[in-house]
Model the fold of this input.
Amino acid sequence: FMDKEERDLRWEEFCKKAKGATNNDQIFDYIPMDDYYKELRRLALEEAETYELAKRYYVVRQ
Done:
């Protein structure tokens, strides 16, 4: 499991990504709330999918 600091950093990165930020200056760019939520959801699902695939791959390789 991640420690709190690592989790906070990860959370921040996630937010930036969802807002379409490519650097720190852009993090406060306005984005409609609905779009932001949709993008967060998309990123989360993408990550979950990658996680599942990785998990399966590891099991298969045993």
